[in-house]
């Protein structure tokens, strides 16, 4: 197996952080929806979905570290959707600066996942 490139590790750590924040947000939504003042119908479902997606995202991050091609493809799909979402948000909300940063981070993630060293790493796993 080829040595894991630093770029893959960076992307995996970012994926872990994103997954953790998603899971935490989902858990907090579910807790907030179950308080006496929690009149937020449907927040349990949204919270549960966010929690599950966060856990899946963390698992995908582990897969990246292990050289899983499936994890690489899933991360690629999420990053491309992030770019599309940022473009849509720029057009509809006019919030350009934040969306440009979001797009740049996604593009950097894609570049790091598809360098020659990263490709060799995923191919050798």
Automatic annotation (TrEMBL):
Q: Alphabetically list the UniProt keywords.
A: Membrane, Transmembrane, Transmembrane helix
Q: Does the keyword Transmembrane helix apply?
A: yes
The residue ranges crossing the membrane are 7-33, 45-65, 72-91, 97-115
Q: What is this protein called?
A: Uncharacterized protein
| Organism for this UniProt entry | Plantibacter flavus
């Amino acid at each position: 197996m080829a040595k894991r490139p630093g770029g893959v590790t960076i992307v995996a750590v970012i994926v872990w952080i994103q997954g953790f924040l998603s899971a935490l947000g989902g858990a907090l939504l579910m807790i907030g929806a179950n308080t006496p003042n929690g009149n937020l119908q449907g927040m349990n479902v949204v919270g549960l979905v966010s929690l599950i997606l966060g856990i899946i995202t963390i698992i995908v991050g582990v897969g990246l570290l292990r050289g899983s091609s499936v994890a690489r493809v899933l991360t690629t799909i999420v990053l491309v959707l992030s770019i599309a979402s940022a473009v849509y948000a720029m057009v509809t909300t006019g919030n350009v600066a934040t969306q440009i940063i979001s797009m740049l981070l996604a593009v950097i993630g894609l570049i790091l996942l598809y360098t020659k060293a990263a490709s060799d790493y995923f191919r050798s796993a």
